[in-house]
Amino acid sequence: xxxxxxxxxxxxxxxxxxxxxxxxxxxxxxxxxxxxxxxxxxxxxxxxxxxxxxxxxxxxxxxxxxxxxxxxxxxxxxxxxxxxxxxxxxxxxxxxxxxxxxxxxxxxxx
Length: 110
Description:
Distance between the termini: 92 Å
Radius of gyration: 34 Å
Structural class: mainly alpha
Number of helices: 1
């Protein structure tokens, strides 16, 4: 870091070089603040990880509900491998409808 100055007159020569350095250091006087900051950062990281996992599960479940999944051996296939539906995907949207045509007495509805 420096500079060089050239004169306007071609017969003259001026060289001016400036150099400098800076050193800075800090000594924390209260180590409790550092520990508190680390604790807050750890909780924030856990919160962000939970949000990521819940969003990933929700989006993968939406894909499965719509009948889609990632192609096997694709670069993103592993994202939804551990999302397993608890109820049948075909009946998930129709929980109020009966899967058979019989009414509650067991006779066939006409």
